[in-house]
Amino acid sequence: MIINKIVHCADLHLGAKNIKLPLDKQKILSQEHLEGLKEIFLSQSDIVLICGDLFHSKTVTRKIMTFFFNLVKNYQKPVLYVSGNHDEKFDFSLVPSNFIVLNRQNAVFKTENVDFWCKEGDFSLIDKNKKNILLLHGEIKNKLDNDYVDINEFTNLPFDYIALGHEHSFLLKEFAGKVVVYSGAAFANGFDECGQKGFVSIDVAKDLDIKFLPILQREFKIMHFDISPFQNLNQIKLRLMQIMSEEKNNLVRIIFEGYYEEGYKPDFKIIDFSNFYCEYIDNTKLKLDFQKYKNEQLSFKAEFIKLVEESNLDENMKNQILTLGLEALQGDELSI
Q1: How far is it, in rounded angstroms, from Cα 70 to Cα 88?
Q2: SS (H, E, C) 27-86
Q3: d(C-alpha 111, C-alpha 171), whole Å
Q4: Where are the domains of the chain?
Q5: Of residues 284 and 7, more confidently modeled
Q6: Which residue has the higher pLDDT, 160 or 264?
Q7: Which CATH code for domain 5-214?
Q8: Which partner from 153, 184, 301, 312 sits 20 to 30 angstroms from 24, CA to CA?
Q9: pTM of the prediction?
Q10: Contact at 8 Å (CB) between 59 and 17?
């Protein structure tokens, strides 16, 4: 068997649910993720690598398992897999014959021009006349992570490509001249996973030409919205309608920021965001009128302003203290 093109993916986390979303949205996303899997197996490749966390937990439903392994079976070509921290206890004994688990008992999969290894392999047997690819799952930056993998143990070995899983964003780096690639998660399940998700295509015939291929899907997006330039809620709503028309199929978190005038506190609850899913965080603050508070009679605020202004602090420090102090007196969150 000659390998020309390879697909490298990881962290599919099939069966994962974002319990913070409404149930109907969870079901839609779950079904769309299953459909998105087809892109991995319909790509023009000779082999698929899955670097861990195929399933989110061992309680994954039979429907999801059946759907996935039918795709593997219909793909017909080899699908290589190494376990991740989410599916170490999963039983892979009843799977299609072309789904091949690399582990201590089966540490290398050989083809005519490329050999594929897991970390338990006897690397003294590496054939340097071929391309050699290592499959790993783990964290390579943070030594305190429970799933830390010391990449330095492998970069002095004759691997042409180290395929990684665990990090949920695409990352390509070089360590000691070795190409080390996180494919990133195939699908996003929360606002901590913004940005495009997909898989990596490797062209062996072009000396390991590496491309990230996004899977078409809804994205989680975080948007910051400054209300300061707007005079009223209607102006805010009109601007949001323009923005959200481009995000109607995505999951959006809007963080409202900036300052509003006294007597005008925007009520964001009445806004119809009109997209697949939207939530918001209100970080807006009351615009502070120091001169007004300074002239109040028998006022803590006026006394506070007087004390700060009479201090020997520089103007910048005075403004910071005045802002924090008045926010505290009004019960606002502090601008720290």
Answers
A1: 21
A2: HHHHHHHHHHHHHHHHCCCCEEEEECCCECCCCCCHHHHHHHHHHHHHHCCCEEEECCCC
A3: 27
A4: 5-214, 220-330
A5: 7
A6: 160
A7: 3.60.21.10
A8: 184
A9: 0.83
A10: no
